[in-house]
Design a protein that fits this description.
- By secondary structure, the chain is mainly alpha-helical.
- Helix content is 78%, strand content 0%.
- The protein has two domains: 18-198 and 263-474, Up-down Bundle (Growth Hormone, Chain: A); 209-262, no CATH class.
- The two termini are 31 Å apart.
Length: 508
């Protein structure tokens, strides 16, 4: 640790705080928004009875957050670049904390769903700004690899911790304390960011691409709404097809706007920085399609089939979270020894193996026999893949677009997750409905969950094969920084590739 601190002091002489302290605050911000993605899953039955939700309303407690989060990430990233990353991060955390408190105080379904949507809006500002500030603090080199390891640990563990904390709080004090606790946590993180994270200058010149932002936000909203509605009304429903058609039209309009706007929301230079940005985002979307579904189906199996309480279900996520954090710590070292291509491919294949193991769950199984082993395997490999693909998605991006690149990789993960969850939930529901006509209820539910895990395993196996092509072709041979194909060797000096330090008094 002493060597690491000295290395980072050399990298950023203009800052008044050590980068590892700033990283702790930024990672906590990312952990908080990822926590809110899954923290309600275990408590949905209690929330439903508490505010009188219908079946569709219960779904929207989850979807309202994910919809606002995913649809507005690009806008949040661009705002961070233009207005100042620290300023946008603090504003996002404040909005997130206020919306979390409002959700905990909600007494009607409409108030709760609206608060969750505003929560997602705050998260869309927090996630890209925090990642961009991390890239500012840690230039390419060993320090960035370590920073992304920490980032991956808290990002991946956020989903598992959400299930754990949701179960503990729901059983101990009731569902409203889920949101009260998140609100307090966000307020603490806001104070930590204000104290530990130095200011970064906003991009010079340019103006916000409002037409492009509106077009892509409405397009993603229509797409995610159509996907989530398809779970309830079917893929051929007129409203679902209409939502997909609207999304396609709006995306075409967005492309036209971007080609003509002097300061586009998605500037071409973001993609001409190298094939790595495109490759990383494509692979992250596929990984996201499985990641979000995992934290949706696994707690359902534990509660509805194994009969676990919310508390026991939450505690059951501890091994997954621990393995996730271990994998994120190991990711830069593994990549430095065997290269990014081998690391990503091996991690994705290992996670596919864990999901294939989960596809053998039984209706009369147990947590130790059916869940524990695959959870450890999945947690370890998921975090390694996440760290590598996050690094790949921001490598080579101009500093002025770092917030936008962070928003893009979060967008692809969220939209990929929405698509994956919608498809897998529809498929699992169809299998369960068919099996229910000739098999007991628990066996029918298990058949649906097994199908979802099996298909997810196949998706990740195909993603691993795709990574062999994309990562090898798009990544340069670099030192062990967590990015690129590299052979073992001594770390590059901390003073190499060091951009200008962050100006500590640019923002208030």
């Amino acid at each position: 640790m002493e060597t690491f601190v000295q290395e980072q002091k050399q990298q950023r002489p203009g800052t008044t705080t050590l980068p590892w302290a700033s990283l702790a605050a930024l990672a906590a911000a990312q952990f908080t928004v990822m926590l809110a993605t899954s923290i309600v899953n275990v408590a949905l039955p209690q929330i439903r009875s508490g505010v009188g939700l219908s079946d569709s309303g219960t779904t929207w407690v989850v979807n309202a957050y994910g919809l606002a989060f995913g649809a507005l990430l690009l806008a949040g990233g661009r705002a961070a670049d233009l207005l100042g990353r620290r300023r946008v991060l603090l504003a996002g955390l404040g909005l997130f904390a206020a919306a979390s408190a409002a959700a905990g105080l909600a007494s009607t379904s409409s108030a709760l769903i609206a608060a969750r949507a505003v929560q997602g809006l705050g998260a869309a500002a927090v996630a890209p700004a925090a990642l961009a500030l991390t890239m500012d603090l840690f230039p390419p080199g060993p320090g960035r690899g370590r920073a992304l390891g920490v980032w991956g640990a808290v990002s991946g563990a956020g989903g598992a911790a959400g299930v754990l904390l949701g179960g503990v709080l729901t059983q101990a004090w009731g569902w409203s304390w889920i949101f009260h606790t998140v609100a307090v946590g966000a307020a603490v993180v806001l104070a930590a960011v204000a104290a530990a994270v130095p200011s970064a200058p906003a991009a010079d010149g340019g103006r916000f691409d409002l037409p492009g932002t509106a077009a892509v936000t409405l397009a993603l909203t229509a797409l995610v709404w159509g996907l989530t509605s398809a779970r309830r009304s079917g893929w051929t429903d007129a409203q679902v097809l209409g939502a997909f058609a609207l999304a396609a039209v709006l995306l075409a309009v967005f492309v036209l706007i971007e080609r003509r706007h002097p300061n586009p929301l998605l500037p071409p230079r973001l993609f001409t920085a190298g094939a790595r940005v495109v490759s990383g985002n494509v692979l992250m979307a596929l990984l996201g399609s499985v990641w979000i579904a995992l934290f949706f189906f696994l707690p359902l199996y534990q509660q509805q089939v194994l009969g676990s309480s919310p508390l026991i279900t939450g505690l059951g996520q501890l091994p997954l979270a621990a393995a996730n954090m271990l994998g994120s710590t190991l990711a830069p070292r593994v990549s430095g020894r065997i290269g990014s291509t081998a690391t990503v491919t091996t991690a994705l294949l290992t996670e596919a193996g864990g999901l294939l193991w989960l596809s053998r769950i039984g209706a009369h199984g147990s947590y130790p026999a059916d869940v524990l082993g695959p959870s450890l395997l999945i947690g370890l490999s998921l975090s390694i893949a996440f760290v590598q693909l996050t690094a790949l998605s921001v490598e080579g991006v101009p500093r002025a677009d770092a917030g936008l690149a962070g928003g893009l990789v979060n967008t692809t993960r969220q939209v990929g997750g929405a698509i994956g969850l919608a498809v897998l939930a529809t498929l699992a529901g169809s299998v369960t409905a068919d099996a229910a006509t000739r098999r007991p209820h628990l066996e029918a539910l298990t058949a649906g969950y097994r199908t979802a895990f099996g298909v997810a395993a196949a998706v990740l196996a195909a993603t691993a094969l795709l990574a062999l092509l994309l990562v090898r072709r798009g990544s340069p041979r670099t030192g062990p920084s967590g990015v690129g194909d590299a052979h073992p060797g001594p770390p590059a000096p901390a003073t190499v590739h060091c951009p200008q330090p962050i100006a500590p008094h640019t923002e208030k």
